[in-house]
Amino acid sequence: MKRLTLLCLLFTFAALAFAQPDEQRIRADVAYLADDAREGRGIGTKGLDDAAVYIADKMKEAGLEPAFGDSYFQEFEMGWGFTLGEKNFITYGGQTIDTKSGVMPTGFSAAGEVTGKVMFAGYGIIAPEFEYDDFADIDVKDAIVLCMRKEPGEFDSTSKFDGINVTAHSTLRAKAGNAKLKGAKALLLVDGPLYADTSQAEELVPPSSNEAYIDCGIPVLRITRAAVKKLFPEFELDKLQRSIDSNTQPRSLEVTKDDASMSTDLTRETVSVKNVGAILRGGDDILVVGAHYDHLGYGQSGSLDEQTNVIHNGADDNASGVAGMLEVMRMLKANPINSTVLAVAFTAEETGLGGSSHLVKNFPLDMSKVRLMLNLDMVGRLNEKNEFTVLSCKSAEELSSIVERAAIGTDLKITCKGDGYGPSDHMNFYLADKPVLFFFTGAHADYHKSTDDAHLLNYEGEVKITQLAYNTLRELDALESPLTYVRTSEPPDQGGGSFRVYFGSIPDYAQPDSLIGVLLSGTREGGPAANAGIKGGDLLVRMGKVTLNNIYDFVFALRTYAPGDTVDVEYVRDGKHELANVVLKAPPAKHQ
Q: Which CATH number fits domain 86-264: 1.20.1250.20, 3.30.70.260, 3.50.30.30, 3.40.50.150?
């Protein structure tokens, strides 16, 4: 028996010694995926489809089986883009303003035609924490609300709205939510003249048709100041803004005695996207290694770049992860382990973890047999000291020691920390009660910018991280018993942000656009929602007075409450409507 054990150990060490990542293959994979020809691998681009075909071809070349029947692709539809129609206008007093003369629908506008009096509601803000409410002294039920963008005291460091810092109250969706909550039929948004460059003609740029939008439930038009003046010549926007900003007191009023007519005309569309997956067959136990391959395209949404409409190649985010995943699978094919390994390149990560959510719900193998999911997301910027923090180690009791053993001989200085929550694809597996590991070399100055290019990657560092991933999978394969999964009650890094309250839920960001409500992936153990009996799979449809049609209504609702408030929440479970009284808490403090 001792002789057999020794032979097994020698075989394991030999496999580790001879299986080494090929830096040139990693470079080649990154070069293809992060080339300008891939168009930033944005949703709806040919470049993203080309990347999917490339990844599938590399999986096939490595001798891996298709993961989805006889296909390497798992296709599904997601909401993306819209077509602008011809009926976008507002009419009053015999004059009509259309998209050619001064109005433009927002991307989140509902489509529809309404009539109603026009009521001015300042900045369209309800902010009890700042003792400010543009709707307090005006009834806008069935009206068309006109309000300004931004917030009072935009450049005033003493402004009660957090000085010159922008608060969540300035978002256009928040203003639309307030108008809708107060019963308005529609919303007009105008730039206030006080801080505007009035020497330049106003230009309303159409919203990008290459983004995912969920409508806010009411028609919303942006309108130029010139158009406002033409329609309502007696209305003095400049004086009203100066008055509001002088002492941060609302100056809401009736603009018209008669009804105006307003129309928004846009049709939302869907696009087909696909995960790419392959299987290396082994025993019953399953290990999953994944990396998202989509990025920001031309930077329409999520970009931090100063330039607009420029290709974001996403070399680190996440061509690096895909290249690492492919190389790990090549190494495992050459040096097989006992477990079955599923490799998946996820789509739609940047738009809400859509690909991994779809995979978890439509898993091609026996989900109960999954031991762990290893996520490679941005692994191309290892620092010069070879310091590497492995995240999600606390998702199972044994993971820290496993990773530390796997790091032997890699020259990496490992730190293990963190639970399974996080803004990447591993979280959907963690919410499905599976241990996870998250490999991530950290954010940098090129994150979500057009400058995240292939020549900036630390390829020697990625080789070391790829070796660590391979070693980790071998260590996991050698375990004689399953990992001990640990569900953390609250995420360690969740701070207050723009919310005053903590609900303790995890929305399913991949819910279909056709599903009305807020679908939950899970709830935080010990959080307000869980304490009230709400759980993953429930569909929230109302929170207090706010009807929840989508995630944005939910975000809006959370901002209307304070810690300690008890709110009645209506949700649907197994087709039945249920009610729960949820006692909201203050947001957990950030750990230092």
A: 3.50.30.30
Residue bearing the bigger pLDDT, 232 or 10: 232
28-81+270-477: CATH topology is: Aminopeptidase (3.40.630)
Give the SS3 label for residue 155.
Answer: coil
How many angstroms separate the most distant Cα atoms in the chain?
97
Where, residue-wise, is CATH 3.50.30.30 in the chain?
86-264
Average pLDDT estimate for 354-377: 97
**What's phi and psi for 30, nearest 5 deg?**
-65, -40
**Distance separating alpha carbons of residues 551 and 573, to the nearest angstrom:** 18
Whether 150 shows a pLDDT value over 70: the answer reads yes
| From-to residues of CATH 2.30.42.10 in the chain | 505-584
pTM confidence score: 0.82
What tokens does 532 get? 């009230």
Percentage with pLDDT > 90 across the chain: 74
Q: Residue 499: pLDDT band by 50, 70, 90 thresholds?
A: low
Q: Measuring CA to CA, which residue among 219, 271, 274, 205 is closest to residue 109? A: 219
CA 520, 526, 527 angle in degrees (round to 5)?
A: 50
Q: Residue 374 carries which side chain, given as an amino acid letter?
A: L
Please calculate the CA angle 148-513-311 and round it to the nearest 5 degrees.
Answer: 70
Query: Averaged over 138-149, what is the pLDDT?
Result: 97
Query: What is the rounded distance in angstroms from the CA atom of residue 384 to the CA atom of residue 104?
Result: 50
Which of these CATH numbers, 2.30.42.10, 3.40.50.720, 2.40.370.10, 3.30.457.10, describes 505-584?
A: 2.30.42.10
Residue 318 per-residue DSSP state:
I
Give all strands (DSSP E) within 174-330, no chain letters: 186-190, 220-223, 253-254, 260-264, 266-280, 286-292
Residue 154 has pLDDT above 90, yes or no: no
| 196-214 confidence digits (pLDDT tens) | 777 677 889 888 877 778 8
